[in-house]
Amino acid sequence: MVYGHSVGGLWVLDDFTQSDPFFSAHAATSPSCWWDDEVLTSRIRSLSLSSRGGTLFMCMGNEGKTMFPPAKRFYEAVIQYDETIQASFLSFETTDHQMIPVIAFSHSMAFLFSD
């Protein structure tokens, strides 16, 4: 299991998009999915369909137009890529970028370690 916030969340999603990821459970809060023209979303879309499984938790705060839409596009690409991936996307509109890790951590652990 790996957890990261902001640029750390981008690193988490980079591992998730690898053909053979190091981790099987990934949690990214406010990931910088906009980076490099949304390269990770492009990577997910270019992977051949598979049933690799795994778990992905994503959470966003009130991030504005730069951060939120790219993260949502990444999540949507993931759930279209592989239906066997257990995925969740939460949004907390009243929570800012600095506070979202505090709110999201317990939600991510509950999701990643649920039966």
Largest sheet: 4 strands, parallel
What is the N-to-C succession of helices and strands?
EHEHEHEH
Question: Based on DSSP secondary structure assignment, what is the total number of beta strands?
Answer: 4
Number of domains: 1
User: What is the molecular shape?
Assistant: globular
The end-to-end distance, rounded to whole angstroms, is: 15 Å
Report strand order across the widest sheet. 1-2-3-4
Radius of gyration: 13 Å
What percent strand? 15-25%
Keywords:
115 residues; 18% strand; 4 strands; 4-stranded parallel β-sheet; alpha/beta
Describe this protein's structure.
Helix 2 runs parallel beside helix 3. By secondary structure, this protein is of the alpha/beta class. It is built from 4 helices and 4 strands, in the order E-H-E-H-E-H-E-H. A 4-stranded parallel β-sheet has the order 1-2-3-4, with helices on both faces. Strand 1 (2-5), helix 1 (7-16) and strand 2 form a beta-alpha-beta unit.
